[in-house]
Amino acid sequence: MTQEMVGNADGGRRGHAQRPAGGGGRQRLPHRKVRVASAQRLSEHLVELVVEGELDGWQAAGAGGHFKVFVPDQAGGQAMRTYTVRRFDADAGRLAIDFALHDEGPAAAFARTAAVGDEFEISGLSRPGFELGGDSEWIVLIADLSALPAVCAIAESLPAGLPAMALVEAPDQQLAIASDAALVVRWLEAGQEPCQRLAEAALALALPEGPGEVWVGCEAAAMRTIRRHLLGDLGLPAQRVHTRAYWKRGVAGHSDHDTGADADGGPGRVEPGGAGTPPVLAADAASAHSEGGRHE
Ligand SMILES: Cc1cc2nc3c(=O)[nH]c(=O)nc-3n(C[C@H](O)[C@H](O)[C@H](O)COP(=O)(O)OP(=O)(O)OC[C@H]3O[C@@H](n4cnc5c(N)ncnc54)[C@H](O)[C@@H]3O)c2cc1C
């Protein structure tokens, strides 16, 4: 079991000036203290915390970038977890974070009971989010509830009319996903195993012709199954496939670096199987009707 339980990695507050990177040349910025300005249940299993506080100069590039939250754990320390920039209004100094309320875990527990005025910390910077490739003619987003905030942020960033599909396994199926794209949303009910239905549906998807992108965020094992299919069975180019484990079954604080690339035959290597196998031709995914789907 891996667990990232940390205090302030910088050992205290230092104001907001950058300090030289420690080993590896990576910049570490002091944490920012934030407090809950509003807590709103978006659905039974999703709560949105809007926070304010030390957000001056905090940056969020791209759609659905991620950062760390530091919340109390049961042992009286801090647990570090990864969350998505759902919305960031630099002028107003407000950051919205949507928390999935799964059964266990300090972050979910914190969000479940969070009230206006509660304080916690976030990392000094956020990692850049998704940017659509200039020649992409379509996009498919595959996600569970934990990655739904990223899907919502990406959907809001897509160009008008772009053929887009979101395949989402979530217990809450009444959430609106706003987009100017020609977005079709297909909701899947969770089965017995987390993300099993999501993986099955992803493997059965018929992708549109032409250059496009597939973005995947879900449980680690399901993500690998989907990634293998996209790269191996369909032979999609690796640069058009964006996969990341958002959590791992039975593991607390799973790494946010898990893209599944380790299963491709070596770091960063991708071995498209079935050489020359083209993507499955499809009726335009964006023209298919979704069951129970909804978008704005
Ligand atoms: C780039 C990135 C962005 C993310 N953005 C968001 C976001 O915006 N909103 C969000 O809700 N989550 C997001 N996540 C997922 C979140 O970081 C994990 O779910 C995290 O494990 C939650 O921490 P916790 O303290 O609640 O549970 P942990 O202490 O990490 O885990 C406790 C137990 O709960 C299980 N568990 C963890 N997460 C889930 C889950 N989602 N569903 C079911 N069981 C789970 C674990 O397997 C473990 O057994 C993101 C992850 C990544 C990598």
Radius of gyration, in Å, reads 19 Å
CATH topology name of the largest domain: Rossmann fold
Annotation, overall tally of beta strands: 14
Any idea how many domains? 2
Low-pLDDT parts are 1-25, 266-296
- Termini separation: 41 Å
Q: Which class do the helix and strand fractions yield?
A: alpha/beta
Shape: globular
CATH architecture designation of the largest domain: 3-Layer(aba) Sandwich
Listing every helix as H and every strand as E from the N terminus to the C terminus, the arrangement reads EEEEEEEEHEEHEEHEHE
**DSSP helical segment count:** 4
Average pLDDT, all residues: 83
CATH top level class name of the largest domain:
Alpha Beta
By CATH, the superfamily of the largest domain comes out as Nucleotide-binding domain of ferredoxin-NADP reductase (FNR) module
Strand portion = 25-35%
Could you say which small molecules are bound to this protein?
A: flavin-adenine dinucleotide
Short summary of the structure?
The protein is an alpha/beta fold and 296 residues long.
Detailed description of the structure:
There is one protein chain. This protein has 296 residues and is α/β, with parallel strands linked by helices. The protein folds into 2 domains: 19-122, Translation factors (Elongation Factor Tu (Ef-tu), domain 3, Beta Barrel), CATH 2.40.30; 139-287, Nucleotide-binding domain of ferredoxin-NADP reductase (FNR) module (Rossmann fold), CATH 3.40.50.80. It is 14% helix and 30% strand. It contains 4 helices and 14 strands. The protein has helices at residues 106-113, 148-157, 196-204, 220-233; strands at residues 19-22, 26-28, 32-43, 46-53, 66-72, 78-84, 87-89, 94-100, 119-122, 139-144, 163-169, 182-188, 213-219, 241-247. The strands form 3 sheets. A 7-stranded antiparallel β-sheet has the order 6-5-9-3-4-8-7. A 5-stranded parallel β-sheet has the order 12-11-10-13-14, with helices on both faces. A two-stranded antiparallel sheet has the order 1-2. Strand 3 (32-43) and strand 4 form a beta hairpin. The longest helix is centred in the last third of the chain and has 14 residues, at 220-233. The protein is globular and about 50 Å long. The termini are far apart. Mean pLDDT is 83; it is low at 1-25 and 266-296. It binds flavin-adenine dinucleotide. Flavin-adenine dinucleotide binds at residues 66, 79, 81-84, 98-100, 102, 104-108, 146, 149, 194, 244, 246-254, 256.
